[in-house]
Batch of 2 targets.
Target 1
Amino acid sequence: MNQVTKFEGSHEDLIHDVAFNYYGNRLATCSSDQKIKIWDYNEAEGVWESNISFKAHSCAVLKTSWAHPEYGQVLASCSFDRSVIVWEETYHDAVKKWTAVATLRDDSGTVQDVEFAPNHLGLRLAIAAADGLVRIYEAMDVTSLAHWTMIDSFPVGEGPSKDEEGNHCLSWCTAKFAAQMMVVGCAKDHVAKIFRQDHNSKWQACEVLGGHGGVVHDVSWAPNMGRSYHLIATACKDGHVRIFKLTEDNQGGALSGGWTRKMFNVTRIADFPDHNAEVWRVEWNVTGTILSSSGDDGKVRLWKATYTGDWKCMSVVSAEDGANAFQR
Amino acid sequence: MMNRDMLKLRKDPTIPYYVGTVTSTTTAFPVTQRLGSPSSTESRPVNARHRPSPKGSGTQGSGQSHGQSQGQSHGQGQGPGVGSTSGSGSTILTVASGTSAALASPVTLTPTTTSTQTTNVSTGMTSSSTLTGGSSISSATGNPGVGIGTMSGTLQGSGTGITQQPFTGAGGAQASNVRTFKFDTNGALSALSASPDYSMVAVVGRDVIKILSVTDSGAEEMINLKAAVGRNAPTGSMDVKWGPTTGRDAKIATTGTNGPIFIWDIGTHNKIDRIIKEHPRSVHRICFSPQEPNLLLSASSDSTIRLWDLRIRDRPGIIMDAKDVVREVQFNPVSMNDIVAGYESGNIQRWDLRNVSTSEKKFMAHMGFVTSLDYHPSGRFLASGGRDRTIKVWDMEDEKRREIHTIPTAQYTSKVQWRPHKPYQLAASFKDESAVQIFDMRRPFVPLHVLTQHDKDATSILWKDTDVLWSVSKDKAFASTYIRGQTSFADLLSSGKATMNCYGQLAFTIASKNSYDSFEKDLVPRSGRPNPRSVALDGSAEATIYRTRQAGGVFDCELFNHEAFIYCAQNYSLDSDNVRAACEHNSNIAWQANKFRDSQTWTAIKLFYSDMAESAIIVSQGEILDAASTEMAAAANKQRNGRAHEDENEGSELSGTRTAKPTVPSLFAIKVSDAPIKRDWSHVETIRNLLEYYAEQGEVQMCVTILLVLANEKDLSEFSRSQQWFGSYIDLLSRFKLWSIATAVSQACKDPEIHTMNQDSTTIHTSCSSCMKPLISRAPTSSGFWACDKCRKVLSSCSVCHMTVRGVFTWCTQCSHGFHLQHAQEWFSQSAECPTGCGHQCFPEMLKIQLEQEQQLDNDRAYDSSFSYHYPRPLHLQQELASYSSHSHHRGGEISEGKESSPMQYSTYSSMI
């Protein structure tokens, strides 16, 4: 288990996303070289092995997301080529193969983010694109993934933004017993917003996570795990990692009795400039207790709350001199 | 770039370029001095310091221009420049191909025009005082490429609906900056071609044939050729080329609908000089020879390439029979007789103009037609774009015709062109794509720049110089993009990502700043594969290719102690009937898993919820509970002193550590039943805090296990977020594939939503045991099927009554014959043999005895242990289903072996049928 598997040389250009599947025993990497590569964990040897690599898009593959294994081995990927492709692993004569089962292409510009909804919402996919819309698709028949219906689409900010103006990003709230929510990074608006369905099932912009000095490159909604509050992390072009705490605003809820635009009090509980370079991605671990962030400084930083509730950098992963140095 | 250098040489520097029209008289502004070559643009951004002294050139210019203006009073321009004849207003244009334009201004210049000029298309006219002050003005255009002075006071005169993006005028001396701008031509455009000095550009589209004058910071419409020729204007122009001849011979060629080629005389009159109508079908591309200015090539759908010598008016073209629709044709910029053609079939073929009857062999370059070709300035390499959405680079000196670079693109190219002075780079416009991309061959997947000036499909491109790219688009605009000001595309791409799985492994990729600047640092020698003959486009010895320096991998950084989690999940007792025992057990388990804090927590809970006597003893020893709890315990116990003596014997059993005097009615001598204590003395608040603490840590395992163990505590069952804890814990268990534990947890939970969680969307498929076909019946009863529709057999029939067994199905694991339980009991009380007559001794006498003994044992053992682990029901079912099907499968073989000595087993099968 302690062996290090290196990705070096596995792609011909930058890798933009790495994603574990639900069980954490498969890994997908996607790259500017237009390919997706799937890695499987070899439990006996304790190493990750790449068993397949396939050309996925005709431009850089920006992000990829695994569906819940209940629906099979299903991946979605999005790209500069303006499409989202849903991939399914199929067997033909005992040969595994990834097949594009559906291509979702709207007149949307670059598709900048894609993420499967939490399992309890069904087989759904949220897509953020350069035209400033978030679209939600649903596979009507989970036994055949070829048909996806757009069940919702809503604008997130001030209209479309060009690629150079920054990207949109989104992250679902995975809490099973909370309202359907997601946080969306709104490109050139330099904010992230929380979207929720109102009583007419229309997605509405609610709380705003402000204070960003640039494009919000990535957002991540921490797994709630039954905490009394929610945590959202953002990665910003201004070099900061920020953590927002959402505590329930009881008064607002009590007054309206039903849907309310202000359900949470948002406080920024951490704001770290440590990367000192563009921060590209943030992601929580499965229990929502450790945050990872990666930036242009060539470092991955891991953040954890102390017993007093302060967030601190617990370790820095760097790749100096080609070797992975792991410092605590 | 070779191509342009040659053009430059052909130009006679003494010919004055200029043009102008003023209301009554035309003023020419001759070029008298050329300080730089038009295409040497490397020093472009630093203009100001190149400004020459006005004196010498000024005087000279004055003399010459004076003469010119008099000679041209009829209002026509002279030289290769073009005067706007249609202009009713006054336009003064200086088109200077050198760096310096000597400007004579006999009549019309006023301070007003000067001031507007500086805010508009500023060309580095030095200052208004110079303009007004003397009869001769020398002005150094700050940029060495093109200088155009547009007196904007007269701009409205041209009146052709110019909608230009506003230029931020720089009134100062350093006025001239290279800018990115866009110019609307009022018609969708399909092609463009620049004048030899790049001061003008011809743009054509379906309804547009126009000539624009272009500076570094803006463009003006000069001539609307379509309007100039009126109703006879050709339509459907798909391509345009500006002839290399200059001066009076300046020509442009355009294509028209269905094959005609129009040769326009723009040197003297803005009219069609000649129409070549020999192509019976449409012409896709025309091309002037860079060396021989009067040679024109045309590529047509009629499967021919024709070569025209424009000096001889009525001479038919030389026909090259290509036997395939010709999409594209290009001259080699170095070797004048070498041309290359691209075909509809995807082939590329080289021709030698000296011998057009034969040609080199075609080679397959693309799947689908060749959309665009461009010779590398070296004349050796050829870039081709194809319908197969690739751009390929060929070494035309290599007989084997292997591509040395391939770039996969999202759309197919409409035009590719090598970037001057950057041997590895080319720009491409794409079909159905508004963005123009610039690639470096050494980094095939990530373009250097993606230029998004246009709103609709960019149709064609042209490099003005190394840093300025011109493009035309269906959005009706001509755009000039200054590359240095553009965002590097790689900067828009994320450089890394880190993610963690439930085993605490970290997968990450990281890279330091991956901007364009560092791209060239990351070049490595190109290995032999996949192109054994890798050739460097820049002529250097070794070909290189980009290798990302991004580091990445997966390693275990122990972010989550999954082993302890799994151990605890598997071993924790969820038994709520015996809180004390369960807590003690769990405490041990946590201890073994090295979760010492959790272990202490369990001990504490055990104390809260076990008998008061024991807790009191431990309180007296001052071990764990704090003072407050002690007081509470003491208070609670005091209340009960009176009725506490009832059972001292049992109380003494509790602990060997109790040495206090048993006869004294003290705190320690109390044995109270659970119920009354818990009602009055509640730990709910403490437990609540405990749960909050664990929830905060993300330790849903503890939250859920505590809740389950204390499930009988009414006050805790209403805990607000318990649903979420259960949901998260079950989710976590599923991630570790601990499904049976997840099911056990969900079964143990009293919350209806959790309890029924795994019953949603659970489907059980049934199939016939004899033909293995799925059971699909037209009329299934509410409880299942009677018989298989396919093989017409009764399902799970009883061997005694031959009816389908519904309910408990019992079968012999040896001969696999099944029965109703009741029938089996009846039958085997009479006989040991199978009722089917298969001869199997299903129930020998000795087994009867053995079975009875076992039953007795089972009864004794049942529920003896408080920690008995309850398997979830579905698992039971699963195992039995499996065993059932395997038995029925091997039915025949085992009977013939007749293992009569084998022990008879009953298996029950809670039938879904």
Target 2
Amino acid sequence: MATLEDVKKLAALARITVSDEELAKFVEEFDAIIQYVSQLDTLDVGKRGDQPKPLLPYTNIMREDGTPHEKGLYTEKLAEQFPSRDGNYLSVKQIISHD
Amino acid sequence: MTNAAPMQKKLNELSITEAARALRAHECTVRELFDICLTKAKELNPTLNVYLEFFEGPDQDAAIEAAQKRIDTEGENAPLLCGIPLAIKDNILIEGKIVSASSKMLENYRATYDATVIKKLKAQNALFIGRTNMDEFAMGSSTEHSAYGATLNPIDPSRVPGGSSGGSAAAVAAHMAIASLGSDTGGSIRQPAAHTGLVGFKPTYGSVSRSGLIAMGSSLDQIGPLTKTVADAKILQEALQGTDPLDSTTIPTPSPYSVRETPKSFRIGVPFHLLEAGVDADLLATFNAQLDALKAAGHEILDISLPTSPYALAVYYVIMPAEVSANLARLDGIRYGHAARGESLLSDYVDSRTEGFGSETKRRILLGTFVLSSGYIDAYYRKADAARHLLTQEYDAAFEKADVIAFPTSPSPAFKFGEKSDDPVSMYLEDVFTVTANLTGMPAISVPMGTVERDGVALPVGIQFTAPKGNEHLLFTISANVTKETL
């Protein structure tokens, strides 16, 4: 059974805050889902070490190195989406302290 | 418009094939066709909440003119989709247009490029009426999880249209577009198609490029059509499919899948053991009657066994959230999307995500974080991954005896608003018959098979067929048999 603390910890890992009001409901729903998927416990998938084949019959699709497009083609479009912009730079909070 | 006598339907009620013919015969112009769809859409949208935005203005006018010019100059040689108004799910990128995935997180996000499917449709001069409502980030089976309100089912507005491509389904069912695009991660095209009386098609994984589709579960997602006829689904699939250097999971040429010849008489496998419980009695009776009709048409019905299938939904609800939690990690309020600002960089991330995501999205992110966490990854994620392969092997074996496998698309018809929104597991059970095609990569189609009555309303229900990977042609042929179309 998941506890309030478990769900709070998962939320912190996922960079989400779950409010105290929401938390009890989340724990209850979470338990119901985990209980449902736990039916996998009763499934025998064969011996461990029987490595399954890759999902697709084609892997490692390669392409030639090259210039995908002319330089700067998307710069303005991408920069327009920045929440905070300084010229073509994205402004973020300072993460290294000078102290 | 001249000589409309043989045409009983209104222009917006036409299929792609019919509209393409009418345009070529100059029975209508591209402008007339577009306007009648848009007018209908605007008339119904305040009640049904199908479109989040209509695309109008000089760009649209130019696109309409270009399509007309092409039909006038190329005539019969113009592409079939030229001048056809389509509705596009709000998770497919159209350059310069907002694409929000029905989330507050991307409320003002403008696409910086065209999805590959959009490029292909533009090359055919197809038209886009607007972007359609969906469950947030395609997570849900009812369109109730949209940040912009639920979409109503045009057949019975007290019921959901299904989801997550509920807006794309309602748009076509209510003749607010000729056809539409959706995306299918666990049934999100097929289930809404079944609930609104349409054809819904999920291609083989890798058949259609995912470049420009907002990712949900990358090993499961495919873009596909919702249409009025099987022929229309085939037309759109043929327009959208193909290898794409921008999506390295697209099927390479030559295809590694063996393509089967279309049999005259199909061997239709039915896993009757999966239908013993949980399916509405009248829906099952409709399904059995459809099987009898197929049998009478000369096809063979085989009872097949898929012993791992009862676990498919549990497998899906481990794999999918795991991929969701990884894919949605990119939405952190730094480079684009909802950007809350707190005291530290960490609080910028946390506040942006907490404010931007709805509760179902959060639930699945937490679930994904859980099944991937170090203490549980063996018990859940690795176990589910092994089960997924077992499931694939079972289907491969079944396809040695059968050409296609048939199920009902969903266990019940469209349900009422609020009926399942407080109980995630009961909502997830909507997908019990559809998730397997995503887990294994098989193509699958839902086709209307009749109606069942609820509260005095005849609600459509769908029959679903799946085929071996790379064999979508088998699905179109058998489905046309159900709808009595000639392809």
